[in-house]
Amino acid sequence: MAKLLIRGGHLIDPANGRDGRFDLLLERGKIADVQPAIPANGARVLDAANQLVVPGFVDLHTHLRQPGREDKETIESGCLAALRGGFTAVCAMPNTTPPTDHRGAVDFIHREAQRLGLAAVHPIGAITKDRQGKELTDFGELFGAGCIALSDDGHPVADAWLMRRALEYAKVFGRPLIQHAEEPRLAAGGVVHEGLVSTTLGLRGIPSEAESVLVSRDIALAELTGGWIHFAHLSCAQSVELIRQAKRRGARVTCEVTPHHLALTHEAVEAFNADAKVNPPLRTEPDRQALLEGLQDGTIDCIATDHAPHTEWEKAADFDSAPFGTSGLETALAVCVETLVAPGRLSWSRLIEKLSAAPAKLAGLAAGTLSVGAEANVTFIDPSARWTVDPQRFASKGKHSPFAGCTLTGAVVRTLYRGVG
């Protein structure tokens, strides 16, 4: 593979404290040198003038649907969507058919991702067998097969005794359990946030307490066991404050937030817009502000897409029947730019860190950095590009987004995975 010199870009590499004009030399799929100026010496030159050159993003929360629902997404289409969005690594949630609850399922995901060679795919295994919340999986088998974490995402582990045992078991391996924090009896039958919009539309609501009650319980269990709990897709102010206080006490607690929860409120589902039907639901403006503040002060560790593609016919059903979820990989950066960078809530460097180095650290991956010797996973951004979201042009099979028709700022113009792209 010929040498590639990336020249003239503004390099942002939070893991190494770089934020300025640097050249980047790539060789054999690795980063060979980083300097303010590097002579070409026969290398092919890629002009990155007026672009940000950043580490490939890492998504801690992606639904690839394969095996079992290839009509919604495949590992191939999901990886192509990831690359469009600047992501060179995705962590695949286990709610496939069958679930990723045994070594064979993990091995299948690894083999398919390696065969395609489009982006890195890191499986997340199930906490309980068949994600039924009744019997723990073989954690040693799943972690030994290469899972970076375990989760029953889509379902909470509702049994407190079982969750305690799971945290004790996972502690042996030093890896986190990712909890979908939703108390099932409080949330049962709900389809939107419980509030004015749910009342106006005549829809059954899910109160914020459905999330915060389970967050409180699992913080207590993490403190009891010394295990590591990671909360997926936070949505409400109570949860942010509970986690903030737990971190101050030294509890091993981490969490993530999605771009859509940062940008939108439950008003987005008015007119029964199923593209904005997500789980946990979009909540109130005070909740959104609390999420923004939690990201700013470090309570929330990273941004994850919760990319959850569905078929068009499913999303076109009546609101109660339509599935939860939105396609988020291809809009994540621009939504974050509009919501965080443009209003001055986060610098570009902090945003890139929340999308790359921070999730890579949580996942235990050697990614999210432009260090010499690291894999040449590089994302190029035009920070001033304006573009309109058209889900029909997504690489993902999921052609639905609450941002459809919105004009956003900030576009990924190229993504290199192991130096190719």
Helix content: 25-40%
CATH 2nd-level architecture: Alpha-Beta Barrel
CATH H-level superfamily: Metal-dependent hydrolases
How far from one another are the termini? 13 Å
Can you give the mean pLDDT? 97
In which order are the strands of the major sheet placed? 3-2-7-18-19
Q: Beta-strand level of the residues, as a percent range? A: 15-25%
| Total helical elements | 14
Runs in which pLDDT lies below 50 for 5 or more consecutive residues are none
How many structural domains? Answer: 1
Class by helix and strand content?
alpha/beta
Q: Describe the biggest sheet?
A: 5 strands, mixed
Number of strands: 19
If you consult CATH, what is the topology? TIM Barrel
The general outline is globular
CATH C-level class is Alpha Beta
Return Rg in Å: 21 Å
Protein described:
This protein has 421 residues and is of the alpha/beta class. The chain has a single domain, classed as TIM Barrel. The protein has helices spanning 75-84, 103-116, 139-145, 160-171, 184-187, 196-201, 209-225, 237-248, 259-263, 285-297, 312-315, 332-341, 348-355, 357-363, and strands at 4-7, 10-13, 18-21, 23-27, 30-35, 44-47, 52-55, 57-62, 87-92, 120-123, 150-151, 177-179, 192-193, 205-206, 229-231, 253-257, 302-303, 378-388, 407-416. The strands form 5 sheets. Strands 3-2-7-18-19 form a 5-stranded mixed β-sheet. The longest helix is centred in the middle third of the chain and has 17 residues, at 209-225. The chain is globular, with a radius of gyration of 21 Å.
